[in-house]
Amino acid sequence: MLKKSIEALKIEAANTGENSLKRSLGAVNLVAIGVGVIIGAGLFSLTGIAAANNSGPAVILSFVIAAVGCAFSALCYAEFASMVPVSGSAYTYAYATLGELFAWIIGWDLILEYSVGAATVGISWSQYLVKFLEKFDIYIPPQLVLSPFETATLADGSIIHGIVNLPSILIISLITSIIIRGTKGSALFNATVVALKVGVVIVFIALGWQYIDPANYHPFIPNNTGTFGEFGWSGILRGAGVVFFVFIGFDIVATMAQETKNPQRNMPIGILGSLLACTVLFILFGYVMTGLANYTEFKNSAAPVAIAIANTPYQWLGIAVILAILIGYTSVILVDLLGQSRVFYSMSKDGLLPKVFSELHPKFNTPYKSNIVLCIFISIFAGLVPISVVGEMTSIGTLLAFVMVCLGILILRKKEPNLERPFKTPFVPVVPILGIITCVVMMVSLPFDTWLRLFVWLAIGFIIYFFYGKKRSKLRNETKL
């Protein structure tokens, strides 16, 4: 239960020595990073899965619930990020308020969150690549774009099993090579593709609106099948838990605090600005998509936008949108990989993980060794695990981190009320408590097997912590001295 002091974290944040990350990001960069990862796999793929399996056309209500839960958590993140502008996000915040063990749980949880998040986007990127190449009569063998646990039905009716999702592995490897070369260049690349993605979303909404078939909205909330989470209001809740994945961008913004100029001002802008900008777009996007095609058509599809566009005369838009999505997805993978490596960096600096993960490149000042290790780990997920599994795992990991951050604000306001807070969460304790309740409700609505995978992952983490991290903890050893 040892805790890092806020003062010690501020000293760490002020360090600009050789073995420290470079501060090169401004408010616009942070908003772009947040939007870059928010508008991604969740919007273009999981929206269709949630509509088909859980919410029906009422998936827009799932977005509203998820956004409300995010708003509570985002306000808490913004306060922490302005107080403690250090890499690590929720991991660092937990270290300062709840103690080392809870910090480990959150750090280990974030590693899972960003890993399966990048894997989910990689899988969806692969699906859209297939759709794009088919427009030019180029076909990739289906065995090489599916996991071993997935099947595909060919034109002749035969069923084949997947071997490995090769394109997703290749794109993750490519993006890893980009981020190793530095944060500033990565941010410029991200800003370019974010502008493209936002433009695509707006064009899709504007052109698709006039071809909405009102019949597709009936019933707006499909009757529950008798199973919790399969339509009805329980389905809307479970759908919120699934699409919650799309809002994790502001969470990743918080991991970039140590590379941000004037973080006390710019971190809250990046966190809250990216969330606000995307929420309205998501609701409109979900409304148009479920209006263009019946929600049942999206079942088992990781590329629902292509299905929706097929119901408009703008076939050129189909090609343009898929190309833009392919380019835009790379920014999502980029930000996930950036965020994850920064959590690894912070945990390694604290002695909880091997020193190799905090070693910086002699030229680019990036934690390149952790980037390489994580690339291998994530590629295994992306190549061998179905998208529905990794998407739900990302949601539950994110929700757990949000609960801890909201709880941390309550504890710190009680124990250290006089600390300098450049940004203050309004209406404390109401906002943090509502954030905790909303996130817990969405966690409970997720399937049992998703919980089981989380428990298995955390169990592995406990073994590593008690047999390695606890003995080598820098804070623990300093306390003994």
Q: How are the elements arranged and paired?
A:
Layout: H1 6-14, H2 27-38, H3 41-55, H4 59-83, H5 90-97, H6 100-134, E1 151-153, E2 159-161, H7 166-179, H8 183-209, H9 232-243, H10 249-254, H11 263-292, H12 304-309, H13 315-349, H14 368-384, H15 387-415, H16 430-445, H17 448-472, H18 474-480
Antiparallel strand pairs: 1-2
Helix pairs in contact: 2-8, 2-11, 2-13, 3-6, 3-9, 3-11, 4-9, 4-11, 4-15, 4-16, 5-6, 5-15, 6-7, 6-13, 6-14, 6-15, 6-17, 7-13, 7-14, 8-11, 8-13, 9-16, 13-14, 15-16, 15-17
What does this structure look like?
By secondary structure, this protein is an all-alpha fold. It has one domain (about 25-135, about 165-480): Up-down Bundle (Amino acid/polyamine transporter I), CATH 1.20.1740. About 70% of the residues lie in helices and about 0% in strands. It has 18 helices and two strands. It has a two-stranded antiparallel ribbon with strand order 1-2. Helix 3 crosses helix 6. The two termini are about 15 Å apart.
